[in-house]
Amino acid sequence: MSLNKELLATLQKAGAAVFDADTQLKLAVKSYGERVHAAVASNPFHLGNDTLFENWKLVARLSKTLAAMEEDLRKVYQVAGELSDVEPSLPDTMPALSAPASDAPVISDNSLAATDVKIKKKKRIAVAKPAKTEARVKTATKPSAVLATPLPKNAEILLKHLKYVLATKGFAAVNQTAVAKATGIPLGSMTAALKRLVAAGYVQTNQSGLFKLV
């Protein structure tokens, strides 16, 4: 049996939640680093510096654990989606095909008697094959190298998030304010990041301003 859409939606939400939690943990790691740096610069011999440093390392380990979980969930979602795509739903019974009806009159056996047929030989006309020219070689279509271009950091983070909130079989709206808050991307950079993903062929948009994965 193929996996239902409810299960895929649940996996998608779980991946998005883990991604959001990992994003917030990364911000916490950065904040702890700044606090440790400020504390050591202010008083290197303060007894609380050791505790602050240990907390910093603990939050960093939690961030790495969530990043690994997010990657595993992404793989599970991709495999589940491929399983639903390749397994077709077959009907319970196959309909029988009936013989085609014909209104043409029945041909009698006498009309099938052999007759003499004269075959005229046709003259063969030699057709010259077009020679390969240098111009044709130069006009050969080259594969597009857009997808091979590395994405900017904001576009890469946005694409990673959209893999959990968008699908490839239907357009959906993207709340730029919510996505910016979840990913840490500045709201003023969201439009540019979306346009970059559309231009690179990772995301497709329609006339209504909705998006889907390619």
Give the helix proportion (percent range).
40-55%
N-to-C SSE string, H for helix and E for strand: HHHHHHEE
Number of helices, where a helix is a run of at least 4 consecutive DSSP H or I residues = 6
Class of secondary structure makeup = mainly alpha
Kindly estimate the percentage of residues that lie in beta strands according to DSSP.
under 5%
Give Rg in angstroms: 32 Å
DSSP strand tally: 2
Biggest sheet, spatial arrangement of strands? 1-2
Largest β-sheet summary: 2 strands, antiparallel
Question: In words, what does this structure look like?
Answer:
- This protein has 214 residues and is mostly helical.
- Among the domains are: 5-86; 153-213, Winged helix-like DNA-binding domain superfamily/Winged helix DNA-binding domain (Arc Repressor Mutant, subunit A).
- Helix content is 55%, strand content 3%.
- The protein is built from 6 helices and 2 strands, in the order H-H-H-H-H-H-E-E.
- A two-stranded antiparallel sheet has the order 1-2.
- Helix 1 runs antiparallel to helix 4 (153-165) and helix 4 packs across helix 6.
- The chain is elongated and about 95 Å long.
- The model is unreliable at 133-147 (pLDDT under 50).
Which key phrases capture this entry?
mainly alpha; Arc Repressor Mutant, subunit A; 214 residues; 2 strands
Structure at a glance:
By secondary structure, the protein is mainly α. The protein contains six helices and two strands.
Present the secondary structure layout.
Layout (H helix, E strand, L loop, with lengths): L4 H38 L5 H39 L47 H5 L14 H13 L10 H8 L3 H14 L2 E3 L5 E3 L1
